[in-house]
Amino acid sequence: MSTPAILALEDGSIFKGIGIGAVGETVGEVVFNTAMTGYQEILTDPSYARQIVTLTYPHIGNTGVTAEDEESDNVWAAGLVIRDLPLLESNFRSEQSLADYLKSRNVVAIADIDTRRLTRILREKGAQNGCIITGDAIDEAHALTQAKAFAGLKGMDLAKEVTVKEAYEWTEGSWALGEGHTQPDTSRFHVVAYDYGVKRNILRMLADRGCRLTVVPAQTPASDVLAMNPDGVFLSNGPGDPEPCDYAINAIQEILTTDIPVFGICLGHQLLGLASGAKSVKMKFGHHGANHPVETIAENTVMITSQNHGFALDESTLPDNLEMTHRSLFDKSLQGIQRTDKAAFSFQGHPEASPGPHDCAPLFDQFIENMNKRKS
Ligand SMILES: NC(=O)CC[C@H](N)C(=O)O
What we know:
The mean pLDDT is 97. By secondary structure, this protein is of the alpha/beta class. It is globular. The protein folds into two domains: 3-149, Glucose Oxidase, domain 1, CATH 3.50.30; 159-375, 3-Layer(aba) Sandwich (Rossmann fold), CATH 3.40.50.880. It has helices at 39-43, 98-104, 115-125, 140-149, 159-162, 200-208, 222-227, 246-255, 267-275, 362-375; strands at 3-9, 14-19, 24-33, 51-55, 79-81, 109-111, 128-134, 168-170, 175-176, 180-181, 189-195, 211-217, 232-235, 262-265, 280-296, 301-313, 322-328, 334-339, 344-347. The protein has ten helices and 19 strands. Bound molecules: glutamine.
């Protein structure tokens, strides 16, 4: 017997399907992601906190789940919406089915709904707050009330909620077939990484390039970071609105008074922009996928990128010492910045991919190059 489930949107739309995860109720901002693979990395990306993720690719779960592929310790997405859960998973690395994984992590998820209809609503009206209820006691009116009652992500500071409680060291490298996670030589640079909701693959790609990382909680004062005498400071991705994160903006401003190289990804990119005097805006439905073309303006080249954001820096607010380096070729929005007076730059998409194409990996090399220049 399948478990009944519904998804209600704040605009009044109701979708009926089956529950494939935990029995219960969840609310959040409903977004759609067009990546064909990487559902486990998406679910465990802390940037998805308070968001219900709809995957537009119709078959989700085919390759099961594998502990090594987690991007953090938890499933952070508030819920999952898919078209079809395959009857069987098949992959030599699979340890569990997606449905069992969702149940064991207490994640509410709905399948067998028309995800194309849902995606059209999100594209036309913008990201919608929503509520999924699964189980035998489904109350449509209650689901609608819950969807409408969700405050929305604008103004929500979630970085301080998902961040690590205590600082820790990270030296593990990328995964290799037959080897698992590698142990690269990380003695070249010491990087302090602000954890606003960091994905592990970012830390791994920095470790691959010779960095030993000290990952610190989001609210760590800049003075503590500077006291560690780092070769570089990394600003991580993370959930929610960057604007209310004043502790982060203040800390970044203080770090920018030194000549220490800074690199930011996604939320970290937005925070570098805010700390430099730019403003951020909430996008209509954001960018969530693994096939987004982005222009590298100086080179007139295109990278195919992984994306996951609902806020963006507003190009028209960039101060004189902030140069726009990248632009989305889907909607022309700002994708990268560089300080003209500092070795500080950042990227809106996800150069660590996981999931996604590897075109942006050279951005990590640029950070290494900046640290190298300062050291030598
Ligand atoms: N992946 C991220 O870091 C997302 C940044 C921010 N929470 C946004 O939605 O725009």
